Every structure is written in structure tokens, then in C-alpha cells.
Amino acid sequence: MTLYDDAVLVLKDVEGQDELRQAYLDHLEAHPDGLWKACTAGHVTASALVIDPGRGRVLLTLHRKLRMWLQMGGHCEPGDTTLEAAALREATEESGITGLTLLPGGPVRLDRHPIPPPCHWHFDVQYAVVAEPDSVQTISEESLDLRWFAYGEVPQVADDSVVRLLEATRARL
Prior knowledge:
Blueprint: H1 3-13, H2 18-30, E1 43-52, E2 57-63, E3 69-70, E4 72-75, H3 83-95, E5 101-102, E6 109-115, E7 120-130, E8 143-150, H4 154-157, H5 160-172
Parallel strand pairs: 1-7
Antiparallel strand pairs: 1-2, 1-4, 2-3, 2-8, 5-7, 6-7
Helix pairs in contact: 1-2
């Protein structure tokens, strides 16, 4: 199975967000290269919110280019075999934390957002991953900072998409 096939299957199983889910599927149908950064009409990305449920906190990255507190994530790469694998790879690379585990149940949310050209749109498939309580993070080259925030602090530092992702993740816990 290819990453494209996995993406279509995963998206068909996403519950809720029906109109947005269909927009993702329509995008992939119209753009067979719609998983890759080179697709200038937009592309599917994979992200993951790193959570420590025992301590009621999330790890956010201060994105170097966007200068916003966000979940870990980014573009799919040729070695990614599934969207889950891409999200887990991104979370591990950007947090420096090994041993992250995906929250069961597939994607937590979908979030489509505009990106300055040449990308135009990110069709983000958002997962959540659980970190062990003693996990130590390491700032990557993509980040200006990496910090744990209590659940209640997230609305003060992050945008609405991150807040919605946290709410959906907490509902799944």
C-alpha cells in the first residue's frame, strides 16, 4: 500500500468534519501528488500534539518561520508509509523525545490552513502522541523554543487550531 492509498483510507474513516474531510479527499483525487510539498495547489501534512496526560500538559514548539506556538508536524516524506508514521516521525524529530506513542483511534482532527506561496494550503491531518512523564525534549532546528504548557495555558499562547486540537485530544483521552 502506498502513502497515497493510506491517506485516502484514513480520511474516509475520519468521523465528523464531513465537509472538510470531503475537501481533503477531493484534493487528493484532483492531485495525485497532493501529499508532497511540490504540489503547489496544496498538500496533505501530518502533525501530532505531544501530550503528558498524567501532568495535564502539552509540548508546543515555537515555529522558527511562523513564530507561533504550534504542535509538532510537517510535510510527508518519501520514506513515510502511513500518515500515522509521518506524524510520529515529525513529533519525534521536532521534540527530540523518543518512545512517543500514538493515541489510539486515528486522527484527532483535520485542519486546513493557508500557507504563503509556493505551498498555498496545508491539509493537516492531526494526531496526538503520548510522552512518558520523564521525557526530555530537545529543540530542533525548526524551532525557536520548545516548552510544556498546562492545558489551561494553551489558549493564551496558541491559536484556535491548537486549542481545538487540544480539546479534541482531551475528549478522546
